[in-house]
Amino acid sequence: MGNAEAATPGGPAGQERASDSLPAWRRPLAIVAHPDDESFGLGAVLARFVEREETPSVLCFTHGEASTLHGVEGDLRRVRAGELASAAQLLGLVHVELLDEADGQLGDVNPHLLDQAVEQAIRRHDADGLLTFDTTGVTGHPDHIAAAHAAISVGKAQGLPVLGWTLPEAVARTLNAESGATFAGRPPDQLSLVLRVSRSAQLQAVQAHPSQAVPGSILWRRLELLGDREYLTWLVPPRS
């Protein structure tokens, strides 16, 4: 692995911008594409809301059935649904909805149908803010991108702010250089919030996804580089 000191959020630049401030949302709703996105991606941020005694919910569009079973027996669709339920409990999430769109084909679904699903979840949970992946999908996965665009579309229509989970571009460059991956990050001036986090609940939730938590995976390296920081950008800013 290369020297990642310059890309590590624990360095001077990360310390300068680090903040303990989250939006004052009582009922945030996370919009994700696959089981494990709520843990590997948004887990530390969702845990911070729970620590504040807020009530975050999750809407997940697919069962993640197009992935691969890694040493876990069973039907992947059912396995991943069970993993999501277990991970949500470890994160302290009360409400998790799992839809049945086709994994890997979310970008082919009529956007109006995705928007409707988000609208319905907002009504059910009386959500006051939306959390999703950045518009790049962070990893470039088209399902992540489709989920993010649904959150943005509905957020704009309903006047709800939308925060996107993202990476600093230096971290993305390091990951791509080491592994040939396609992570996308943002420059420092596009990072709206740098959040100081604990990884404890997130790591427990990740371990609840044994079919996906492959030892040595690039996802673990990403967590190592991020340290105790998570990065968010406003996709739909709050109204002033």
Largest sheet: 8 strands, mixed
Distance between the termini: 44 Å
Number of E-state strands: 8
| CATH top level class name of the domain at 23-135 and 143-164 and 194-215 | Alpha Beta
Helix count, per DSSP?
A: 9
- CATH topology-level name of the domain at 23-135 and 143-164 and 194-215: Rossmann fold
Question: CATH H-level name of the domain at 23-135 and 143-164 and 194-215... which superfamily?
Answer: LmbE-like
Looking at the overall shape, the CATH architecture of the domain at 23-135 and 143-164 and 194-215 is 3-Layer(aba) Sandwich
What fraction of the residues are assigned to beta strands by DSSP?
A: 15-25%
Percentage of helical residues? 40-55%
Mean pLDDT: 90
Shape: globular
Order of helices and strands: HEEHHEHEHEHEHEHHE
Stretches where pLDDT is under 50 for at least 5 consecutive residues are: 1-16
What would you report as the Rg, rounded to the nearest angstrom?
17 Å
**Strand adjacency order, main sheet:** 1-7-8-6-5-2-3-4
* Alpha-beta content class: alpha/beta
Report on the architecture of this protein.
By secondary structure, this protein is an alpha/beta fold. It has a domain at 23-135 and 143-164 and 194-215: LmbE-like (Rossmann fold), CATH 3.40.50.10320. The protein has nine helices and eight strands. The chain has helices spanning 12-17, 37-41, 43-51, 76-91, 111-125, 142-158, 169-179, 200-207, 218-226; strands at residues 18-19, 28-32, 57-62, 95-101, 129-133, 162-166, 193-196, 229-236. An eight-stranded mixed β-sheet has the order 1-7-8-6-5-2-3-4, sandwiched between helices. Helix 6 links the parallel strand 5 and strand 6. Helix 5 crosses helix 6 (142-158). The radius of gyration is 17 Å and the shape is globular. It starts with 11 loop residues before the first helix and ends with a strand. Mean pLDDT is 90; it is low at 1-16.
